[in-house]
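Quarterly update, task 2.4: oxa(dethia)-CoA-bound model.
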Amino acid sequence: MTMNSIIKSTGSYLPERILTNAELEKMVDTTDEWITQRSGIKQRHIARDDESTGDMAIKAALDALATSGLSPDDIDGVIVATTTPDRTFPSVAVKVQGELGIKPGLAFDVQAVCTGFVYALTVADNFIKCGQAKNILVIGAEKMSSLVDWTDRTTCVLFADGAGAVVLSAQENNEGLAGQGIHSTHLYANGAQREMLQTTGGVSTTGDNGVIEMQGREVFKYAVSYMADVVGEVLERNNITSADIDWLVPHQANIRIIEGTAKKLDMGMEQVVVTVDHHGNTSAASIPLALDEAVKSGKIMRGQMLLIEAMGGGLTWGAALVRF
Ligand code: UT7
Protein backbone atom coordinates (compact mmCIF):
# COMPACT_ATOMS: atom_id res chain seq x y z
CA MET A 1 0.00 0.00 0.00
CA THR A 2 1.25 3.47 -0.85
CA MET A 3 0.06 6.98 -0.13
CA ASN A 4 -1.09 8.87 -3.23
CA SER A 5 -1.94 12.53 -3.76
CA ILE A 6 -5.30 12.80 -5.46
CA ILE A 7 -6.75 15.84 -7.19
CA LYS A 8 -9.78 16.30 -4.99
CA SER A 9 -11.13 19.37 -6.81
CA THR A 10 -10.23 22.04 -9.33
CA GLY A 11 -10.96 25.77 -9.61
CA SER A 12 -10.11 28.76 -11.75
CA TYR A 13 -10.47 32.46 -12.32
CA LEU A 14 -10.17 34.54 -15.47
CA PRO A 15 -10.22 38.35 -15.54
CA GLU A 16 -13.30 39.86 -17.12
CA ARG A 17 -11.52 41.84 -19.83
CA ILE A 18 -10.99 39.98 -23.12
CA LEU A 19 -8.35 41.23 -25.55
CA THR A 20 -8.94 40.06 -29.12
CA ASN A 21 -6.52 39.74 -32.02
CA ALA A 22 -8.49 42.50 -33.77
CA GLU A 23 -7.64 44.87 -30.91
CA LEU A 24 -3.95 43.85 -31.06
CA GLU A 25 -3.96 44.72 -34.78
CA LYS A 26 -4.54 48.31 -33.69
CA MET A 27 -1.75 48.23 -31.09
CA VAL A 28 1.18 46.65 -33.00
CA ASP A 29 2.07 45.65 -36.57
CA THR A 30 0.32 42.26 -36.61
CA THR A 31 -2.69 40.48 -38.03
CA ASP A 32 -5.31 38.09 -36.71
CA GLU A 33 -4.19 35.71 -39.46
CA TRP A 34 -0.52 35.71 -38.31
CA ILE A 35 -1.38 35.22 -34.63
CA THR A 36 -3.89 32.45 -35.40
CA GLN A 37 -1.64 30.57 -37.82
CA ARG A 38 1.57 30.82 -35.77
CA SER A 39 0.16 30.34 -32.26
CA GLY A 40 -3.51 29.30 -32.42
CA ILE A 41 -4.50 32.22 -30.15
CA LYS A 42 -7.69 34.18 -30.96
CA GLN A 43 -8.27 36.00 -27.68
CA ARG A 44 -6.96 36.21 -24.11
CA HIS A 45 -7.98 37.61 -20.71
CA ILE A 46 -6.14 40.60 -19.24
CA ALA A 47 -6.36 41.62 -15.57
CA ARG A 48 -7.38 45.11 -14.46
CA ASP A 49 -4.58 47.41 -13.27
CA ASP A 50 -5.85 47.03 -9.70
CA GLU A 51 -6.18 43.24 -9.98
CA SER A 52 -3.08 41.33 -8.84
CA THR A 53 -1.83 37.78 -9.23
CA GLY A 54 -2.75 37.23 -5.56
CA ASP A 55 -6.31 38.45 -6.13
CA MET A 56 -6.72 35.99 -9.00
CA ALA A 57 -5.07 33.16 -7.01
CA ILE A 58 -7.51 33.72 -4.13
CA LYS A 59 -10.53 33.48 -6.45
CA ALA A 60 -9.25 30.28 -8.07
CA ALA A 61 -8.46 28.80 -4.64
CA LEU A 62 -11.95 29.60 -3.32
CA ASP A 63 -13.46 27.97 -6.40
CA ALA A 64 -11.40 24.80 -5.85
CA LEU A 65 -12.17 24.74 -2.11
CA ALA A 66 -15.90 25.10 -2.76
CA THR A 67 -16.15 21.70 -4.44
CA SER A 68 -13.50 19.91 -2.33
CA GLY A 69 -15.74 19.14 0.63
CA LEU A 70 -12.98 20.66 2.79
CA SER A 71 -12.87 23.88 4.78
CA PRO A 72 -9.88 26.26 5.07
CA ASP A 73 -9.17 24.57 8.44
CA ASP A 74 -8.42 21.29 6.66
CA ILE A 75 -5.73 22.84 4.44
CA ASP A 76 -2.20 22.43 5.75
CA GLY A 77 -0.25 23.87 2.87
CA VAL A 78 -0.43 26.46 0.08
CA ILE A 79 1.97 26.38 -2.86
CA VAL A 80 1.64 28.99 -5.61
CA ALA A 81 3.44 28.72 -8.92
CA THR A 82 4.00 32.23 -10.22
CA THR A 83 6.53 34.45 -11.98
CA THR A 84 4.52 37.60 -11.41
CA PRO A 85 4.05 37.95 -7.62
CA ASP A 86 2.20 40.89 -6.07
CA ARG A 87 5.36 41.93 -4.26
CA THR A 88 8.98 40.76 -4.29
CA PHE A 89 8.13 39.42 -0.83
CA PRO A 90 6.18 38.07 0.96
CA SER A 91 4.96 35.29 -1.31
CA VAL A 92 1.58 35.11 -3.05
CA ALA A 93 1.04 31.87 -1.12
CA VAL A 94 1.02 33.65 2.26
CA LYS A 95 -1.47 36.18 0.89
CA VAL A 96 -3.78 33.33 -0.15
CA GLN A 97 -3.27 31.62 3.21
CA GLY A 98 -4.00 34.82 5.14
CA GLU A 99 -7.01 35.93 3.10
CA LEU A 100 -8.65 32.48 3.18
CA GLY A 101 -8.10 32.16 6.93
CA ILE A 102 -6.04 29.01 6.53
CA LYS A 103 -4.29 27.91 9.74
CA PRO A 104 -0.49 28.24 10.02
CA GLY A 105 1.25 25.64 7.88
CA LEU A 106 3.61 25.60 4.95
CA ALA A 107 3.10 28.36 2.36
CA PHE A 108 5.51 29.45 -0.36
CA ASP A 109 5.83 30.29 -4.06
CA VAL A 110 7.55 28.23 -6.72
CA GLN A 111 9.11 29.96 -9.71
CA ALA A 112 9.64 27.85 -12.81
CA VAL A 113 7.82 30.14 -15.26
CA CYS A 114 5.53 28.17 -17.62
CA THR A 115 6.55 24.85 -16.01
CA GLY A 116 5.70 26.29 -12.59
CA PHE A 117 2.50 24.34 -12.04
CA VAL A 118 4.16 20.99 -12.79
CA TYR A 119 6.97 21.91 -10.36
CA ALA A 120 4.46 23.00 -7.67
CA LEU A 121 2.38 19.86 -8.15
CA THR A 122 5.51 17.73 -7.78
CA VAL A 123 6.61 19.51 -4.59
CA ALA A 124 3.11 19.16 -3.08
CA ASP A 125 2.91 15.50 -4.13
CA ASN A 126 6.22 14.80 -2.37
CA PHE A 127 5.08 16.55 0.84
CA ILE A 128 1.96 14.38 0.85
CA LYS A 129 3.73 11.14 -0.06
CA CYS A 130 6.23 11.57 2.77
CA GLY A 131 3.44 12.30 5.26
CA GLN A 132 4.26 15.95 5.96
CA ALA A 133 0.88 17.26 4.74
CA LYS A 134 -2.60 15.89 4.02
CA ASN A 135 -4.31 18.62 2.01
CA ILE A 136 -2.42 21.18 -0.07
CA LEU A 137 -3.79 23.95 -2.23
CA VAL A 138 -1.68 24.06 -5.39
CA ILE A 139 -2.23 27.17 -7.47
CA GLY A 140 -0.86 28.51 -10.74
CA ALA A 141 -1.48 32.25 -11.05
CA GLU A 142 0.00 34.85 -13.37
CA LYS A 143 -0.39 38.44 -14.45
CA MET A 144 1.87 38.09 -17.50
CA SER A 145 0.42 41.32 -18.93
CA SER A 146 2.54 43.17 -16.34
CA LEU A 147 5.75 41.69 -17.78
CA VAL A 148 4.91 42.23 -21.44
CA ASP A 149 6.40 44.99 -23.56
CA TRP A 150 3.20 46.10 -25.30
CA THR A 151 5.21 47.50 -28.22
CA ASP A 152 6.93 44.13 -28.94
CA ARG A 153 4.74 42.25 -31.41
CA THR A 154 6.78 39.06 -31.03
CA THR A 155 5.63 38.55 -27.41
CA CYS A 156 2.65 40.81 -26.63
CA VAL A 157 0.28 38.75 -28.79
CA LEU A 158 1.07 35.57 -26.82
CA PHE A 159 0.90 36.13 -23.05
CA ALA A 160 -2.15 36.59 -20.81
CA ASP A 161 -3.52 36.48 -17.26
CA GLY A 162 -5.48 34.09 -15.06
CA ALA A 163 -5.32 31.57 -12.23
CA GLY A 164 -6.12 27.91 -11.68
CA ALA A 165 -6.03 25.78 -8.56
CA VAL A 166 -6.32 22.21 -7.34
CA VAL A 167 -6.80 20.74 -3.88
CA LEU A 168 -4.36 17.85 -3.53
CA SER A 169 -5.23 15.32 -0.81
CA ALA A 170 -3.64 12.22 0.67
CA GLN A 171 -5.37 8.92 -0.10
CA GLU A 172 -4.18 5.35 0.35
CA ASN A 173 -3.75 3.40 -2.87
CA ASN A 174 -3.76 -0.39 -3.14
CA GLU A 175 -4.44 -0.58 -6.86
CA GLY A 176 -1.22 0.60 -8.47
CA LEU A 177 -1.82 2.56 -11.67
CA ALA A 178 -5.55 1.76 -11.52
CA GLY A 179 -5.77 3.87 -8.35
CA GLN A 180 -6.56 7.57 -8.27
CA GLY A 181 -3.77 10.11 -7.86
CA ILE A 182 -0.37 11.26 -9.08
CA HIS A 183 1.63 8.25 -10.27
CA SER A 184 4.81 9.90 -11.44
CA THR A 185 6.34 13.34 -11.87
CA HIS A 186 9.27 14.33 -14.06
CA LEU A 187 11.13 17.66 -13.74
CA TYR A 188 13.92 19.13 -15.82
CA ALA A 189 15.80 22.36 -16.41
CA ASN A 190 18.73 23.27 -18.62
CA GLY A 191 20.22 26.47 -17.23
CA ALA A 192 22.58 26.80 -20.19
CA GLN A 193 19.47 27.88 -22.13
CA ARG A 194 18.28 30.50 -19.64
CA GLU A 195 18.81 33.46 -21.99
CA MET A 196 16.40 32.12 -24.63
CA LEU A 197 13.40 33.27 -22.64
CA GLN A 198 13.93 35.80 -19.87
CA THR A 199 13.06 39.25 -18.56
CA THR A 200 15.30 42.20 -19.29
CA GLY A 201 15.71 42.96 -15.58
CA GLY A 202 15.08 42.01 -11.99
CA VAL A 203 15.31 43.00 -8.34
CA SER A 204 19.07 42.60 -7.85
CA THR A 205 20.20 43.72 -11.30
CA THR A 206 18.26 46.56 -12.87
CA GLY A 207 16.06 47.14 -9.84
CA ASP A 208 12.88 46.82 -11.87
CA ASN A 209 10.94 43.84 -13.21
CA GLY A 210 12.04 44.15 -16.83
CA VAL A 211 9.96 42.87 -19.73
CA ILE A 212 9.80 39.51 -21.51
CA GLU A 213 12.29 38.83 -24.30
CA MET A 214 12.15 35.54 -26.17
CA GLN A 215 14.02 33.82 -28.98
CA GLY A 216 10.71 32.37 -30.16
CA ARG A 217 11.94 30.12 -32.93
CA GLU A 218 14.65 28.55 -30.73
CA VAL A 219 12.27 28.05 -27.79
CA PHE A 220 9.75 26.47 -30.17
CA LYS A 221 12.34 23.98 -31.43
CA TYR A 222 13.32 22.87 -27.92
CA ALA A 223 9.71 22.82 -26.73
CA VAL A 224 8.79 20.25 -29.37
CA SER A 225 11.80 18.04 -28.64
CA TYR A 226 11.71 18.29 -24.81
CA MET A 227 7.96 17.57 -24.75
CA ALA A 228 8.44 14.52 -26.96
CA ASP A 229 11.26 13.28 -24.68
CA VAL A 230 9.43 13.80 -21.41
CA VAL A 231 6.11 12.24 -22.47
CA GLY A 232 8.10 9.26 -23.77
CA GLU A 233 9.78 9.02 -20.35
CA VAL A 234 6.38 9.07 -18.58
CA LEU A 235 5.18 6.11 -20.66
CA GLU A 236 8.40 4.16 -20.18
CA ARG A 237 8.69 4.80 -16.43
CA ASN A 238 5.12 3.64 -15.84
CA ASN A 239 5.33 0.80 -18.34
CA ILE A 240 2.27 2.00 -20.28
CA THR A 241 1.51 3.10 -23.84
CA SER A 242 -0.32 6.17 -25.09
CA ALA A 243 -3.42 3.95 -25.42
CA ASP A 244 -3.57 4.05 -21.59
CA ILE A 245 -3.86 7.87 -21.58
CA ASP A 246 -7.35 9.37 -21.75
CA TRP A 247 -6.38 13.05 -21.90
CA LEU A 248 -3.30 15.07 -22.70
CA VAL A 249 -3.39 18.28 -20.63
CA PRO A 250 -0.53 20.38 -22.05
CA HIS A 251 0.81 23.82 -21.21
CA GLN A 252 -0.96 26.19 -23.56
CA ALA A 253 1.76 28.16 -25.36
CA ASN A 254 1.22 27.33 -29.00
CA ILE A 255 -1.22 25.01 -30.78
CA ARG A 256 1.58 23.78 -33.06
CA ILE A 257 3.66 22.60 -30.09
CA ILE A 258 0.58 20.88 -28.62
CA GLU A 259 -0.19 19.18 -31.94
CA GLY A 260 3.43 18.02 -32.18
CA THR A 261 3.24 16.35 -28.75
CA ALA A 262 -0.12 14.72 -29.54
CA LYS A 263 1.32 13.38 -32.78
CA LYS A 264 4.36 11.98 -30.97
CA LEU A 265 1.95 10.18 -28.63
CA ASP A 266 -0.19 9.02 -31.54
CA MET A 267 -3.18 10.67 -29.86
CA GLY A 268 -5.96 12.44 -31.78
CA MET A 269 -6.66 16.10 -30.98
CA GLU A 270 -10.05 15.02 -29.58
CA GLN A 271 -8.08 13.63 -26.62
CA VAL A 272 -6.20 16.88 -26.01
CA VAL A 273 -7.43 19.71 -23.77
CA VAL A 274 -6.96 22.92 -25.77
CA THR A 275 -7.59 26.37 -24.32
CA VAL A 276 -4.78 28.32 -25.97
CA ASP A 277 -7.28 29.74 -28.50
CA HIS A 278 -9.23 31.61 -25.82
CA HIS A 279 -6.77 31.82 -22.90
CA GLY A 280 -3.47 32.59 -24.67
CA ASN A 281 -0.29 31.70 -22.77
CA THR A 282 -0.95 32.22 -19.06
CA SER A 283 2.38 30.65 -18.03
CA ALA A 284 2.02 28.71 -14.74
CA ALA A 285 -1.75 29.19 -14.75
CA SER A 286 -2.35 27.51 -18.10
CA ILE A 287 -2.50 23.86 -16.98
CA PRO A 288 -4.79 24.28 -13.94
CA LEU A 289 -7.00 26.60 -16.03
CA ALA A 290 -7.22 23.98 -18.80
CA LEU A 291 -7.81 21.21 -16.28
CA ASP A 292 -10.63 23.08 -14.55
CA GLU A 293 -12.33 23.96 -17.83
CA ALA A 294 -12.20 20.33 -19.00
CA VAL A 295 -13.48 19.04 -15.65
CA LYS A 296 -16.34 21.56 -15.42
CA SER A 297 -17.41 20.97 -19.03
CA GLY A 298 -17.62 17.23 -18.31
CA LYS A 299 -14.79 16.25 -20.69
CA ILE A 300 -12.43 14.93 -18.02
CA MET A 301 -14.15 12.40 -15.78
CA ARG A 302 -13.20 10.64 -12.56
CA GLY A 303 -11.02 7.60 -13.11
CA GLN A 304 -9.49 8.85 -16.35
CA MET A 305 -5.73 8.95 -16.87
CA LEU A 306 -4.20 12.37 -17.55
CA LEU A 307 -0.79 13.19 -18.97
CA ILE A 308 0.17 16.72 -17.94
CA GLU A 309 3.20 18.43 -19.51
CA ALA A 310 4.78 21.87 -19.71
CA MET A 311 7.82 23.77 -20.89
CA GLY A 312 9.04 27.31 -20.34
CA GLY A 313 11.78 29.76 -19.40
CA GLY A 314 14.94 28.34 -17.86
CA LEU A 315 14.54 26.38 -20.01
CA THR A 316 12.43 24.23 -17.73
CA TRP A 317 10.14 21.36 -18.59
CA GLY A 318 8.26 18.54 -16.92
CA ALA A 319 5.33 16.17 -16.86
CA ALA A 320 3.04 14.25 -14.53
CA LEU A 321 0.91 11.12 -14.87
CA VAL A 322 -2.31 11.46 -12.89
CA ARG A 323 -5.41 9.31 -12.58
CA PHE A 324 -8.14 11.90 -11.93
O1 UT7 B 1 5.35 29.22 -22.70
C1 UT7 B 1 6.73 29.26 -22.67
C2 UT7 B 1 7.31 28.66 -23.86
N1 UT7 B 1 7.12 29.51 -25.00
C3 UT7 B 1 6.86 28.95 -26.14
O2 UT7 B 1 6.69 27.78 -26.20
C4 UT7 B 1 6.84 29.83 -27.35
C5 UT7 B 1 7.61 29.14 -28.45
N2 UT7 B 1 7.63 29.88 -29.71
C6 UT7 B 1 6.53 30.07 -30.46
O3 UT7 B 1 5.43 29.72 -30.08
C7 UT7 B 1 6.72 30.65 -31.83
O4 UT7 B 1 8.10 30.70 -32.13
C8 UT7 B 1 6.13 32.08 -32.00
C9 UT7 B 1 4.59 32.01 -32.01
C10 UT7 B 1 6.62 32.97 -30.88
C11 UT7 B 1 6.57 32.68 -33.34
O5 UT7 B 1 6.23 31.82 -34.42
P1 UT7 B 1 7.32 31.45 -35.52
O6 UT7 B 1 6.64 30.67 -36.55
O7 UT7 B 1 8.48 30.79 -34.80
O8 UT7 B 1 7.72 32.85 -36.10
P2 UT7 B 1 9.18 33.56 -36.14
O9 UT7 B 1 9.56 34.00 -34.78
O10 UT7 B 1 10.09 32.68 -36.89
O11 UT7 B 1 8.83 34.84 -36.99
C12 UT7 B 1 8.42 34.74 -38.38
C13 UT7 B 1 8.20 36.14 -38.91
C14 UT7 B 1 9.34 37.10 -38.61
O12 UT7 B 1 9.53 37.90 -39.73
P3 UT7 B 1 10.72 37.60 -40.77
O13 UT7 B 1 11.98 37.67 -39.95
O14 UT7 B 1 10.45 36.23 -41.29
O15 UT7 B 1 10.56 38.69 -41.78
C15 UT7 B 1 8.81 37.94 -37.46
O16 UT7 B 1 9.38 39.24 -37.45
O17 UT7 B 1 7.04 36.73 -38.30
C16 UT7 B 1 7.35 38.02 -37.79
N3 UT7 B 1 6.52 38.28 -36.62
C17 UT7 B 1 5.26 38.76 -36.69
N4 UT7 B 1 4.50 39.11 -37.73
C18 UT7 B 1 3.26 39.53 -37.47
C19 UT7 B 1 6.82 38.06 -35.31
N5 UT7 B 1 5.78 38.38 -34.54
C20 UT7 B 1 4.80 38.81 -35.37
C21 UT7 B 1 3.49 39.27 -35.16
N6 UT7 B 1 2.75 39.61 -36.22
N7 UT7 B 1 2.94 39.35 -33.93
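Highlight for this quarter: The first helix runs from residue 21 to 27.
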